[in-house]
Amino acid sequence: MLNRVQPIKAFVYESVRFSPTLSDTIEVEVVPRAGGKPCCSGCGRRCATYDHLEKRCWTMTPLWIFSMVLLYTMRRVDCPQCGVVVERVPWASGKWRLCDGFRLFLAQWARKLSWQETAASFRVSWADVYASVQWVVEYGLKHRVLEGITAIGVDEVCVRLGRVYWTLLYQIDEHMVRLLWIGYDRQKDTLLAGLKSLGEPVCAGLRYVCSDMWAPYLAAVREHLPRVLHVLDRFHIRKQLNEAVNQVRKEEVRALAAAGLQPQLKKMRWVLLKNRKNWTPKERRRMRQLQHSGLASIRAYWLVVAFEHFWTYLSPSWAAKFLDGWRRRVRRSRLQPLRKVADTLHKNRAVLLNYFRARKAISGGVIEGLNNKVKLTLRKSYGFRTDKAREVALFHVLGHLPEPQLTHRFF
Ligand SMILES: [Zn+2]
Question: Which of 232, 99, 46 is nearest to 155 (CA)?
């Protein structure tokens, strides 16, 4: 089985036995093939043996309930170029106590389970899982190919409490959706640094960039990608409109309570943020009752519903006419939070209308899906105390990165 799953050229699996000292442990003894010269770990050249070090052990992928360890006496080589250095072995790299195959195995499971669950399942430490994922991600980032990128998306994500936002850059082409870059802030310079890090050839090949209405992003795109069609993301606009409705509701609830009136909006928060298709029969009844109540929250909700029609237009000029009409309705409604969003939409009208010019190229919902995945990854990550760990986890799950090529496969 070992020869099938982890062949080791120039070495031999000499014996496999239960450990006399450790319970539930299988020891695998490895020796060099007869007459085989060791490989220099510096340059890879085969050199003469200088001396032998102490016996070392490496953890392999466990088998059922048994831990597996590989035992081998390392040699040092006398390399004409690198001097006296330790040899290179095919099952592990550097000073690692885990075999490369096991590290890749852990990293692959860490994509399906949380890091904590992975560590517990395979009886290693959390730090081992983190280091394995980091190794795979570093390899992936070094070996990924940034080609054929025509559409990118920019998203801001709240990574932890205290309003800490990161900027995430994605490729959102039909054939490839992946995380490209992470910046630890959401300023104009953050995005500029990200775009620059993609490199000149990638930027030259871009045709679409998709973002929200966050002014620093708009400015950065205008500056660095003046010839690229900038599209506003539908998902973000809906989010902003929903936030405005929520704001109206909160103010109204407060005002009703202050005036000592009947709290008509109790338990209405989620109803007002939902698509009306998803209302339960009870919620539908409630909304019908409140229809003519004149409540600001209800009016705000229906104005937001009305805006959805905007996206169904084919021609930008008709869409523009609709937008003006909608904005007039919002202004008449005197709903301050909604007016603010309407004004921002009006201000970014040109970019907003690009949506109809790029309709076919940008599939809706991509950024929303990615945003959800990011949140899920961060939520699963109770153990991530550092930003670096968060970054590694996000690239691991969303980066679509190539993995280290080993001679063996586990899946
Ligand atoms: Zn060497």
Answer: 232
CA distance 193 to 93: 33
Provide the residue count of the chain. 411
Q: How far is the CA of 2 from the centre of ligand 1 (A)?
A: 29
Tens digit of pLDDT for each residue in 70-129?
Answer: 999 999 999 999 999 999 999 999 889 999 999 999 999 999 999 999 999 999 999 999
Distance from Cα 398 to the centre of ligand 1, integer Å = 38
The DSSP bridge partners found for residue 75 are 52
Distance 54 CA to ligand 1 centre (A): 21
Global pTM reads: 0.88
- CA of 96 from ligand 1 middle (Å) equals 20
Q: How far, in Å, is the centroid of ligand 1 from the Cα of 160?
A: 46
> Cα(349)–Cα(344) distance, rounded to whole angstroms?
8
Q: Which residues contact 185 (CB under 8 A, 6 or more apart)?
A: 165, 166, 167
- CA 35 to centroid of ligand 1, rounded, Å: 19
How does pLDDT run across 278-322, given as a tens digit for each residue?
888 988 888 888 888 888 999 999 999 999 999 889 889 999 999
Residue with tokens 């090949």: 205
Ligand 1: centre distance to CA 46 (Å): 8
150-174: b (≥16 Cβ within 10 Å) or e: bbbbbbbbebeeeeebbbbbbbbbe
- 162 in the Ramachandran plot: left (φ > 0), alpha (ψ -120 to 50) or beta? left
